[in-house]
Every structure is written in structure tokens, then in C-alpha cells.
Amino acid sequence: MGASVLYMSMSLDGFIAGPNEGPGNGLGDGGERLHEWIFAGPPTGEGGVPGRPPGVNGTVMDEVMETGAVVAGRGTFEPAGGWGGDHHDGVPIFILSRSPEDEEARWPLVTYVSDVAEAMAAAREAAGKKDVLVHGAGTAQLALAAGVLDEVQIHLVPVLLGGGRPLFENLGPDHIELEPVRVLEGEGVTHLRYRVAS
Amino acid sequence: MGASVLYMSMSLDGFIAGPNEGPGNGLGDGGERLHEWIFAGPPTGEGGVPGRPPGVNGTVMDEVMETGAVVAGRGTFEPAGGWGGDHHDGVPIFILSRSPEDEEARWPLVTYVSDVAEAMAAAREAAGKKDVLVHGAGTAQLALAAGVLDEVQIHLVPVLLGGGRPLFENLGPDHIELEPVRVLEGEGVTHLRYRVAS
């Protein structure tokens, strides 16, 4: 069975978005800095959209795109326009929502779920042998607290944002031990992969 | 001339000490977790004190001990018992204090200075061709704000502390860009070295 893996770009001071997040400003002020490494590829995509980034960064993006299901929160999903209803390759998407019954059934691939453990179980089932892509700070925190996050893949960006949304907060006082799995040095980013100790 | 280099052990969630720091609890609750990698060496030192850690971690510790001066804050210096008046090899120590004239002249190697830029200039002068060891969260923040920090060496420890003293806070809204210099994978710690972009 695959692993549930959090993939997040984070500044060295721990932020995954800049200050003043809101409608129309989903990454917060200056938050796009954290995603530059993803868009550093040659403009080979449709409409001049950058293609796969070169080198190690491309390898890591390939891993993201090889996941078999997605678990995220509304705070990630909605500013991203629901990824147009398809994050990649038509894999099922599980979005955490406090009142899933009130959510509009707008996207066929999307299931709204209130409980993170339930969402993760459904995503694992759907992903089969593939990993599950976990995304978003709130979802990460809930998944860690519920003990349903297997791995953490941080794309550590060499910048101090000085403010914004922290990835790790509200974790409670107990230490969560991590086991280093892999360090990859990409262009403008260091990819740190950890297993969450059980 | 050498560089001013911040050396700090930090958890993946950005803390350099656990919660409830205070007299007799200088590292905060559970904060000793961040320094385990330093004390993982064989007990070859005097009185059974662990010696130089093996491998990469030893190399990094050697670099710390090859610096030619120290700049730190009272919040680092005092809980450490002033390092007995000698951090290493009798190099000069510059301690930031709001009222240096009131400080007791207890340690011959220690000079109290109120201004971080002044402290750094004096330390650089004293260190000559060697690097200056910068230590402590408050000192790091002041040195970054004053533009007198050349490099940042983070010993990234694979644990989420969940609370404590953050290394990077109060930095203001302007991004501080860093240039990755080196990544070293030690036993139980990843050493990330950056140059502060000017």
C-alpha cells in the first residue's frame, strides 16, 4: 500500500504562504516566491505555461504527479479554483469540510469529507499501491494529530518571508519525531523527505 | 576577512528551544532534543563528557570551534552559565546588552555591547581571517535587520517540537533572500548553510 505524503513548499522561517491571504490572494503577499522552483522550467507547455522543471526538481514534481489520490482542505482547494476539478490525471480528490453535506457537488472527482482519518482511508483505498498526495497546512496539522500522515516532503525555499501562514502550528506539546528519508538539492530549493515516526 | 555565521540547531517547525524557558530551564521543556546530535559522540572527554561527534557532525562542530570570536545575546549567554567565561580557545566574546555599562566585568574575555553592528564589527576585527560565531535567536534577528549577518548555518533536527522559541520572528515584511551554500547530511541532523543575499 502507498504512503500518505505531505508535499509543501516552505520558507526557511516556516511559512507556506505570505501575509494577507484571501480571495484573489491565495498565496498571500509575495507567497509566489515559494513556488518559483516549480515554474522554472522551459515554456514548453500549452499557452507558454512552463513545463516540467529540469533536474531534481522535475523528479520531485514527477513524484507528486504519480500520486493516486489527493487529500486537501478547502483553504487549499478553493483559492486554487478547485484545480479545475482535476488535480492531475483524474485521480480522486478528498476535500476536508466541516459540513460536507452542504457542499455543492460541482466536481465529479471531488468528495467532501468531515473527518481527516476517514478522508485518508478513502484516499488510500482509491490510490491502491500509489501514494496519497496530502496538501495544505490545516490538513497537515489534522493528519499529524490523527496519526494518519506517513511522510513529510518539504520543499525548503531559501528565503525568509517574515510573516504569513505557518505550516506547523497548533501541534500540541508532544514531540513528533521524524526519520530523515532523503535530501535532494534542487535548483533554488532543497527537498527534505521524512517519515513520521509511529 | 572572515564571515559572520549564525550557528543554530532548529526543529523542522522552527524552534530553537522548547516552551517555558527560564532560570534552570535554559533550553525550555524538551529543548535538549535539539542538541542530541552534538552529544552523540563517544564519552572520551573529561569526566565522561561526550567527545567530538563522529562523521559530518564532527566536521561541522570543528567549524564552530575554529571561529575567532563570538557574538551572542544575554538570553543565550546567561542560561549557558557564560560558558564558564570561555566559549572555546579563549576567543573574545561580545554579548549584546541594553545597558552594557551596568554589566559586571566578571569574565575577562567578555565585552558587553549595546549595538549589534558595533558588536559584529568588534568581533570581526578580533577574529581576523577567521569566521565569527553568531548565536541566539534575538541576536540573529537583530543582525539580520542590521544587515550584518553574512551566513546562516542551520542544524535542522528531524522533530516537530510543537512550541517554544522560534528562531525567525519579528523579521518584518521584507523578504530576506538566502543563497544555498552547502547541505550536509549528518547522523540525526541536516546541516543547511546559506549566504544572506545583500
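Chain B has a mean pLDDT of 94.
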